[in-house]
């Protein structure tokens, strides 16, 4: 069933003798309001490419020594270190499941560690992108990718909150009709919303450089 | 094994009631947390798949996760519970009876691929004739197990080399079966090139057994129903396509570019005296861990005086590496001492190589990783843990 306000558009699309387009395409183009692509107002800057020479990548085995052969306990290790030439330490053939990756960025001294997955190469990829974000955040501050993303998220949330408040205010107004004067309530609410937005803004801006 | 303090158990319990169970095997909260996360992810995924297929087992993921955790606390390796292990970009399937790929092995497989590429560049510089590119890159992986090394090498080298021939040899039929499954599995995941199906072959062979004369005709006749030796496998499977290069070399075996192996290397005493962890000892195949010296009659013929029984595979593989004129040989060893023993073993052999072989360069053997930074960068423990021996022409 078509809603009545759609009728004139479709009718025009089919009947117009001047259009050179096929009727179906013209219909689609006119119906763009239903499928408008969601675009960011400004595209995010490209992710920072880190120079491989600046990175020190090391593979850790989570906690403690790892590999197939490891030192059995801290005490043994100390003992072994004290008597290195004479004593061979008790070693252990093991099956470590952890494969954490740590990357140090030389110029900035930022260290990132990742042990999200069991795969070392996957962990490295994740750690690299995390490190790139951190380095960028340190270099560019508010203009960095992370900060811009956080800003966009904050704005979205603020507008959502605002809309929700407006909705409930309207509902309330509907319930006790005529009691509240329109202009008065509106101004009051907007002031409230603005204060709210400002507090969230300070909250995130305090957070964003640290993350 | 040190007792887990009650405070730690309580702390773990407060976080998640399943963590204390996992602590029994993991020993540290950090790794228990990680393992719980991975197990949960798998349990949820499995249950979702089950419900989609509407199979009879309609248990919730919580029940499943609890069962998995109890299994883990008994010492069953995580990889056997989950059924796979990431290895580079590949996903290697694991099952009882086949050794689980270790991250150390992953490290030196990457190193091997790097050295092969470097070697190819050098030979191109020396002789820019097209004959070098016509011959496929030949790799022999002894004691292949899950086939992880062979598959990862193919994944790493396929973009650079047009033709690769990889042969994986193992004694265990279960391992060979799994290796073949891994090949298909990784092609299915699209992390391995489709041509790997033709270029990687897994064969059953006995690395330790040798036929006195490396002659294909006598080898096959003597074989009968016995497990073939590596020499027999090589002459059987490379003659059809590569007869021309074989005859030009004048030796009965084809030339191998890279010989790589992670043989069993744990000594009998190390296996039993608590050095090998419970989980490994109880659940991973002994065949892949301890060289079988007691039952094998040939072992006396292979090992020389002063050889330790756990080093028997190295003696045999070094011999093979000479026979196939491997330009690069990479062997994983249990620790630094063993690696140094293998280097010594190689040096003891090398004069014979210089006289007999028509190799132009001198081979050098080194332990890798040698420096502390190398160890840290590649995930090896600084003082202990496995090492590998790299034998190559020229050296650095």
UniProtKB/TrEMBL annotation, chain A:
Protein's GO biological process: mitochondrial translation
Keywords for the protein's UniProt record, in alphabetical order: Mitochondrion, Transit peptide
Domain Prokaryotic-type class I peptide chain release factors: 95-169
Ranges of biased composition (kind: Acidic residues): 177-189
Ranges for region Disordered: 150-211
Chief localization: mitochondrion
Residues that span the membrane, as ranges: none
One term under GO cellular component: mitochondrion
Biased composition (Polar residues): 200-211
MF-aspect GO terms: translation release factor activity
Residues spanning the signal sequence: none
Annotated localization: Mitochondrion
Bias kind Basic residues: ranges: 154-168
Recorded family membership: Belongs to the prokaryotic/mitochondrial release factor family.
Protein name as annotated: Peptide chain release factor-like protein
Organism of origin: Penicillium daleae
Upper classification of the organism: Eukaryota, Fungi, Dikarya, Ascomycota, Pezizomycotina
TrEMBL record, chain B:
GO MF entry, a single one: methyltransferase activity
Provenance organism: Penicillium daleae
Gene Ontology CC annotation, any one: mitochondrion
Region (Disordered): 235-254
One of the GO biological process terms: methylation
PROSITE patterns on file: N6_MTASE
Gene3D superfamilies for this protein: DNA helicase RuvA subunit, C-terminal domain, Vaccinia Virus protein VP39
Protein name (Swiss-Prot/TrEMBL): Methyltransferase domain-containing protein
Superkingdom of the source species: Eukaryota
